[in-house]
Amino acid sequence: MALDGPRSHIRPINFCGIGVSAGVSAGGATITAHTYENQCVREMLEQLREIAGHCAGTPVWSLPDTDLIDAIHTVHDAEQMLTAVKLHLIREIDGRNLPITQEAASTAVWLREQLHVSINAARRTVDLAKTLDQRPTLDAALSTAAVTVEQAHIVAKTVHDLADENSADVVDLAEKTLIADFTDWEPATFRKAAERILAHVAPEVADEADRRAAERDEKRAQRTRAFTLTNNGDGRYRVTGWLDAEAAAIVNAALDPLCKPDLERTPAQRRADALVEVCRLALHTEQLPDNGGDRPQVAVTVPYDVVRKELGVGQLDSGERLTAEQVRRLACDAHILPIVLGGQGQILDVGQQRRLFTGPLRRALVARDGGCAFPGCDRPPQWCDGHHIRHWTDGGDTALHNGVLLCGYHHRLIHRGEWEVRMADDGRPEFIPPPYVDSERKPRRNIYHRRT
Fold first, then answer.
1. Is residue 250 part of a domain?
2. Counting beta carbons within 10 angstroms of the beta carbon of residue 126, is it exposed (0 to 12), middle (13 to 18) or buried (19 or more)?
3. What is the number of other CB atoms lying within 10 angstroms of the CB of residue 83?
4. 208-265 per-position pLDDT tens digit
5. What sections of the protein cross the membrane (predicted)?
């Protein structure tokens, strides 16, 4: 709105708690309230940044205990309020499609680049900004630090989940009840209250809602279940995944007896040891199915110094190294299969051979090939079959010099007859490609599994 009048008539207007003036300039240009308001917002935010920087650089060691406690609460409340300001700004930026005009794929992507946050954090922030725009009660609660940002996320998810199957009145009451009665609870407990909020505000529909929610959670958990064992490249493996409630209960029941507290291990270390022990116990049973024609097992190839009578560094089928101490621990409770290696790593002798590629003979194939021997294939030995280079039906022996490990895909490929496989002079398999792959048909080898 334009504020017209003589230059001598200037009245104060208060924006954002700061007194400013509005009137007409000497040139007669009209100055609007919005101009002062925008300037006020910019100036206040700049002042906030300066004040925050000054506080961050001020030592706090001299504060008395009571002041120190009061200060942490004050800073925490201010943090929640400033987050509300940031969410308002993000909502306005999103509403104006500013990220799109700046060639960003979405507001979340734009925020990731502008604020240097993860994409997941950016998406959660955009979602919460949209929710605050639609839920004035929650917006007011965060703007006054009546709820924390974590609690606001929980309330936002709760009202979103309830909105699909409940009336607007029930959703509004659930939101107000959570904010009014449960904000003194930390987020984990607050989340539990949110999950049961219908029992407080609409008990007549709570049981049916719980049943639907349980079914929905079960379907999502089954759809997204996962388990990943990732090589970190520094001797450690990262275990990640998702389980549904039933599967998690089974895993916890198996691990819990092996997680008894002691003074030498942290709880996380005890759980890690318990997982390995459960798998170790499973390997001792007769119930696990065969894996690649042999019982599930851990295989280690290790050199032995006959003169010093010492074990060297061991090597797993995956190529990972084990210390001599780790090898000795495994050997304390294992069946030992001696394999004698020549100077170039050729297998010179293996324990008792059998008719099929199982037992000691399969172990010899694994020790020599390390996995699928076809050039360029990285399939592990557990996924491979023993293949007769000269077919058994043609009189070929089930012997190391007539066997090669192949994954299912390359086993079928070799049986089609276009590729040829033969044993080279050094006792390792090599493959001859068909003319349409290589007109010169030069022999090829798998170097992925090579250890020497």
1. yes
2. buried
3. 19
4. 777 777 777 778 878 888 888 888 878 888 888 998 878 888 888 888 888 877 777 8
5. none
Of the three residues 269, 284, 299, the one that is the final residue of a domain is 284
Give dist(CA 343, CA 172) in Å, integer.
78
pTM (2 d.p.): 0.50
Work out the pLDDT band at 344, boundaries 50, 70, 90: low
Instruction: Report how many domains make up the chain.
Output: 3
- Cβ–Cβ under 8 Å, residues 444 and 433: yes
| Structural domain boundaries, residue 258 | 226-284
d(CA 235, CA 224): 28
Residue 304 in domain: no
3-state helix, strand, coil in the chain (%, to 5): 50, 15, 35
Burial of 261 (0-12, 13-18, 19+ CB in 10 A): exposed
Domain boundary among 38, 56, 74: 56
Q: Are residues 425 and 342 in the same domain?
A: yes
Residue 440 tokens, joined: 């010169």
Q: Which value, in Å, is the radius of gyration of the alpha carbons in the chain? A: 35
Residues 346 and 276 in one domain: no
